[in-house]
Design brief:
There is one protein chain. This protein has 201 residues and is α+β, with helices and mostly antiparallel strands. The chain contains eight helices and five strands. It has a five-stranded mixed sheet, sandwiched between helices.
Length: 201
């Protein structure tokens, strides 16, 4: 199940998301609402990815809902083809059920990477991951810097390598991770809780 960012924003913005033709269940609607809120308030609102604003606002970000872990790798195959054959900049594959443990999710990402290699897509697509309990190597579990990659669901993002290359060529992307760490560590605990209410306390 795939929906474009423009459709999502419009549906939420004028309050007719319930019954949206591309969303078949209330669970789907809830998932989309949470992902949209995370993107707009956290990713865009905190400028965690300064290059995300334009593609999201222009509708070049697709979101694919994946019901189970078993459907994720076939979903990767399908969404990778749609991404490369279409005009979207990126797609977020949102896992609605499963891999709630971050270490299990991290292990699963190895399978995703191997899948791209096996299908000769590793030179065309880049993988970025998000998880409710994301933890960077070497950081304490409660370090605010982890919130850079914390999302309401386990998410696998596929990015076009050519788009990433253009971004890298256009600016100082190496400074972004450090800036994000400073931004998140400067927030008070109440602000983090408001922005990331799904994170276990």
């Amino acid at each position: 199940k795939r929906i474009g960012a423009t459709d999502i924003a419009l549906a939420i913005g004028i309050s007719y998301l319930t019954g949206h033709p591309q969303l078949s269940t209330s669970s789907d609607e809830s998932t989309i609402r949470q992902v949209h809120q995370w993107i707009t308030q956290c990713v865009l609102g905190l400028s965690l990815c300064p290059y995300a604003q334009q593609p999201y606002r222009s509708g070049a970000v697709a979101i694919a809902l994946i019901k189970s872990v078993e459907q994720m790798l076939p979903g990767i195959d399908e969404q990778a083809k749609l991404l490369l054959d279409g005009t979207d900049e990126t797609v977020l594959l949102v896992l609605q059920s499963g891999l709630s443990d971050f270490l299990d999710f991290n292990d699963f990402i190895d399978d995703v990477e191997h899948r791209l290699v096996a299908t000769d897509l590793d030179d065309q697509l880049q993988v970025v991951t998000f998880h409710p309990d994301y933890q960077f190597a070497g950081e304490a579990v409660d370090d605010p810097s982890n919130y850079t990659n914390r999302a309401p669901f386990p998410i696998v993002q596929l990015l076009r390598v050519d788009s990433v290359s253009k971004v890298v060529d256009a600016g100082d992307t190496l400074a972004i991770p450090e800036k994000n760490m400073q931004t998140l560590r400067a927030l008070e605990a109440t602000s983090l809780q408001r922005l990331f209410p799904w994170v276990a306390r």
